[in-house]
Amino acid sequence: MNDEILFAREDDTAVAMVDDGVDSQKYLIFMAAHLKLGVVAEDVVEILNNQVITYLPMVPSYIRGIINMRGQMIPILDVCARMGMPSREEDSLVVVLNLGDVQLGILVDGVDQMLDIPKANIHPLPANSTQLLVSGMCSLPDGSGTMMVLDCEQLVPNE
């Protein structure tokens, strides 16, 4: 009888370990225009504060300019302007993302937290949604609101 209890505990432990590794994904959650947006944490390279952004002429209005990050020129995108919301007046934090072979910085109001979110909790947007920059949304497990998953590949259109 003691053997049955021992095996049951081992099975429970094994199930718990599988669920934690396969079922969730880590997201960096940040604030932009009173919205909570999330990006997959493995896409985040760095979070920078007080960067001097050099203006570039003849680029879309949502591109604020470029920064020099250790000798590499990184374009900076105003995520609020890109989503059709009022443009940011001041520059605060830059979240640098690695999108394949391109690095891109996005302006955010502040970084909220990093969370493991179960993939089953992320729901697709309604079918009639015209928002192409958001690929899904979920209620945060700590009850602090709703996060919209930013589709980073759609931030810069292929023009």
Total number of strands = 10
Helix content: 10-25%
How is the biggest beta sheet arranged? 5 strands, mixed
Which residues sit in consecutive blocks of at least 5 with pLDDT less than 50?
1-22
Strand order within the widest beta sheet? 8-1-2-10-9
Query: Could you say which overall geometry the principal axes of the C-alpha atoms support?
Result: globular
SSE arrangement, N to C = HEEEEEHEEEEE
Strand content: 35-45%
| Nearest-integer average pLDDT | 80
Distance separating the two termini: 69 Å
* Total DSSP helices: 2
Structural class: alpha+beta
**CA gyration radius, whole angstroms:** 20 Å
Sequence-ordered SSE layout with sheet pairings:
Elements: H1 2-22, E1 24-32, E2 35-40, E3 44-49, E4 63-69, E5 72-78, H2 79-82, E6 93-99, E7 102-108, E8 110-118, E9 134-139, E10 146-150
Parallel strand pairs: 2-10, 5-7
Antiparallel strand pairs: 1-2, 1-8, 3-6, 4-5, 6-7, 9-10
